[in-house]
Amino acid sequence: MKFLLLSLSFFMLVSSQVGAQPTEVVASVDKNPVMADESFNLTITANDDVDRSAFDPSVLMKDFVVGRTSVSTQTQMINFNTTRTTIWTTLLIPRKQGRFTIPAFNVDGQSTQAIPLMVVPVSANASAQSRDIFITTELDVPEAYLQQQLRYTVKLYLGQDLQRGSLANPSLENADIRQIGKDKEYNEIKDGRRYRVIERTFAIIPQQSGNFTIDGPLFEGEIIDNSRQSFGFFNRSTPVNRVGPSQDIIVLAIPPNYPHHWLPSDYVQINEEWQGDPEQYHAGEPITRTITLTAIGVVEEQLPTINGTYPDNVKTYPDQAETATVEKDQTLIAQRKESVAIIPSEPGQLVLPEISVPWFNVLTKKTEYTTLPAKTLNILPSVNQTASPIPQLKPEVTTEAVTNPNQSNPQTSTVMTSEPDRTWQIVSAVLLATWLITLALWIWQVKFRSKKTLSHTQQIKQPQHSVNAQWSSLEKALSQADKKSVAILLPHFLANILGQSHLTLSQSLQKLGDQQLVNQVNLMLAAQYGQATKDWNGEALKQALRPYLKGATDKSGTSKQSLKPLYPSA
After folding, report:
1. What global pTM score does this model have?
2. Enclosing H/E stretch for 437
């Protein structure tokens, strides 16, 4: 028994040593010739237990679509003779018709033989069975400019029931490829046979100029095989692989000496929107302007920044731009929205220059401009400013000689005096109003004559109380970092401090001439109307305003900006 065991171990050792030596490696294909859109298997067999990574099919990617590679090993022992085999199976689909050669592969020091392969066009096959599934591709234009959208349509024809399947995207080097729209499904009769068609559309935006080939999409799936008997609820299926035909494309470069931002499109439009009533814009109050740039056949990353210029007498606080890309009618549409808060510092006419965006029309192959015309806004005085009285024109009285001293006809005299004269009505109304005002002033003077000895301190308590009340509200808003309330209360407070209630915020800051206060106010306005909406704190602005609150009263507590009494004491 010991001798038998030793003999068995010896023979197994010898067999394993013999099997470890490199042996023959053979390559073969399961179809030859093969149709241009169908798959076939390349099999590499090595009579040894070889490392799984010893075979690399990447060299075939130039002429074929290289699918998955499966690796299997087999071990057999006959009469103490052990045989090991390693098999690689790779799925290949030819990219185009013609004659090709599958090169020799080096596997573990051994080389395979080269295999000549014939790829025939689909029309050369007379068998309908091989056309159960096929793919067609279509490109809308044979050439396009750099970054211009191409519309690529894929149709998958199914002649049998599909159990499962997946369709990959087409491929193009240095290009943005995305599906647009939803899949369409319908029936179509082709070559006398009814097919179920699944149509899918892609948008391809090349990022490099030159001559390129768009590789067709790969379909991998399984169809139900009715020729094979099924068991129970499980149907027999057959794996299928198809690839769409390639499409050649010429990508034109940007025209030489093109000076603008490159925006190739079929159509570009710019428009604007204004918040609020354009007839009610006041100085010192923010005006929100939203500009929208829309382009067809591009993505949002291609849209340029909208460069708007504004006069020096306004402050602008732009918001962060919003961009988006949507699809409509199998076309990409990109939009860019830019909003800016405009604060005019003085009333009058505010003229905003036109905004022009250049773009390249891919249809006419010319540079065009989409323009937002110049706009003039009528800025009203600030709500704090007293409106100037509207001058009233004196009515012109035209005297006509309508009477004759020598005329004694009473009927004619009666007719002339009965006609209304609006001139005399206006003059009478003015005289009546003047008399009423004079009477009211006389009554007021008699009634309050006894109070003319009122002290100067009592006369100015109300303005100072107003300053203190405004500061109390403003200080509360600053402590709570309430930017909206501060922006409303601050102009009133500064105007009251200066004793000129008609001043706007910009005019008050100009009169004070305090750069530190100006900087803090700008930070507040930027936080209110700009992007920095979270980091503002009102404490610094409060400290900058305190000296002016103290300066509004003298040592006796009276206001320096008081008005003289209407009837000063003698």
Report:
1. 0.65
2. helix 422-447
Q: Taking CA 457 as the corner, what is the angle to CA 456 and CA 459, rounded to the nearest 5 degrees? A: 65
Share of the chain above pLDDT 90, in %: 35
- Say how far apart CA 105 and CA 99 lie, in whole Å: 19
Query: What digits encode the pLDDT tens for the residues 446-472?
Result: 565 544 434 433 443 444 457 788 888
- How far is the C-alpha of 84 from the C-alpha of 77, rounded, in Å? 9
Provide the pLDDT for residue 62: 84
- Residues 61 and 28: their CA atoms lie apart, in Å, by 18
Question: Residue 401's CB: how many other CB atoms inside 10 A?
Answer: 5
Pair of tokens at residue 491: 């102009």
In 103-161, beta strands by DSSP E: 106-107, 110-111, 115-120, 133-139, 143-145, 150-158
Q: Name, in order, each residue with C-beta under 8 angstroms of 441's C-beta and a sequence gap of 6 or more.
A: none
Beta bridge partners of 64: 94
What the block records as the tokens of 311 is 């006069």
The mean-pLDDT minimum among 11-25, 37-51, 352-366, 497-511 falls in 11-25
pLDDT value at position 463?
47
Which residues, at least 6 apart from 312, have a Cβ–Cβ distance to it below 8 Å? none
Q: Per-residue pLDDT averaged across 59-72, rounded? A: 86
Identify each DSSP E strand in 275-330 by its residue range. 287-296, 314-318, 322-328
- Residue 495's CB is within 10 A of a number of other CB atoms, namely 22
Q: Distance between CA 51 and CA 41 in Å, rounded?
A: 21
Find how far residue 565's CA is from the centre of its chain: 63
Helices 461-479, 539-551: inter-axial angle, 10-degree rounding: 170
Which phi and psi (to 5°) does residue 527 adopt? -70, -30
Quote the tokens at residue 34. 């093969």
Q: How far is CA 11 from CA 8, 76, 111, in A?
A: 5, 15, 30
| HSE toward the beta carbon, residue 309, CA cutoff 13 A | 9
Nearest to 478 by CA among 490, 468, 491, 494: 490
Assigned token pair, 389: 């009285």
Question: Where do we find the tokens 């298997």?
Answer: 41
Compute how many other C-beta atoms are within 10 angstroms of the C-beta atom of residue 468.
12
Q: Tokens standing for 47?
A: 């009579």
Token digits of residue 500? 């000129």
For residues 528 and 482, give the distance between their C-alpha atoms in angstroms, rounded to a whole number: 9
Distance CA 524, CA 542 (A): 11
CA dihedral 481, 482, 483, 489 (to 10 degrees): -120
C-alpha distances in angstroms, 502 versus 281, 470, 497, 561? 16, 16, 12, 14
The arithmetic mean of pLDDT across residues 212-222, rounded, is: 91
| CA nearest to 467, candidates 553, 383, 564 | 553
What is the longest distance spanned by two Cα atoms in the chain? 173
